[in-house]
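Appendix B, Record 12. Input sequence as logged:
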Amino acid sequence: MKEKNKVLMGRFLRVMVPLVLLAAMIIGNSLVEKDDRSADTSSVYCKATVVEVLIDQTGGQEFVGNQKVKAAITSGEYKGYSCELDNPNTYQIGAFCTEGTRIVALVRKNADGALVGSVYNYDRTGMVVLLLGLFAGILLLVGGWKGAAALYALVFTFACVLCVYVPLLYCGVNGILSAILTAVVILAVSIYIINGWSVKTVCAIIGTTLGVTISGVLAMIVGDLGALTGFHMDDVEAMMGMRRDIDIRNLLYAGILISSLGAVMDVSVSIVAAMQEIREKAPRLSSAELFASGMRVGHDMMGTMSNTLILAYAGSATTVLLYTCGMPFLKIMSYNSIMIEVLCGLCGTIGVILSVPIQAGITALILQPQEKKKK
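Logged structural output:
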């Protein structure tokens, strides 16, 4: 009975402790004063449905010409009203509208009190909600209780990035420090949710922290040697205009640290789980033999996880890769966007590779042979 109560209490804590931390993060994030990012403080974004296309200069083609449409507003303070909207129909702003198209509109009242505005983009809210529901359903169906724990950990991770990492950067905290603090919180709580608190959890936390820290430090060293900083990233001018105290220089390295966290954590947890299983099956195995077993497990994972990171960065840089096709070699080697992707991919992958011996060594050291424990 006592053992059953202990198990139930452990499960209860695995739900409540992250929930309390989640509530604290959300409250803390709400206290951070943020700049108003609206194009016009008198305008509001709202959902709308196109009722009629009044003027069409597009020739039936996307991204060509302008439109003027009449739309019924379906959300926000102007819900139930109708208004005419200008539609620029460009690559970034606007949407190719037909009757029934669901859009997001930027609406305001003019001097006469009439509603006017423009089409901002398509309304993709329903699509995102449907995709999230499909993702959660598949995860629960395939993973069962473990899938539910993984989903809970994923929600916590997402909230931690939005409510800890981003606010810390926004307040001007050093990017590397912000990334390390966020990474430690994410991996500690995520592993705790999925596996509970145990020796395996401690080993994985230590190994993952060292792995992502190596990625960040290596990126800083290589970035300084190659004169690459956060000032080479997209939208940096807009960020500098937004807040002067944001630590732009370290944003690039902080991003590498966060982006490599998932791969390093996956490798570390897998190695720890395998080594703990080996220790239970062969309790008299020496630390050196256990370390060798952990390395063999890690060897099989290095290739796949390295491919995962490299392909992820290559996928995000597809347009850049296409643009540089046919460029002279020296121009490519000095092209900021390409070099940033190379820096991110290689430094993150090196962190994953080095996390194998680090994690195997830490786990072998903590999981002592049965004879040593008795002594």
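The chain has a mean pLDDT of 81.
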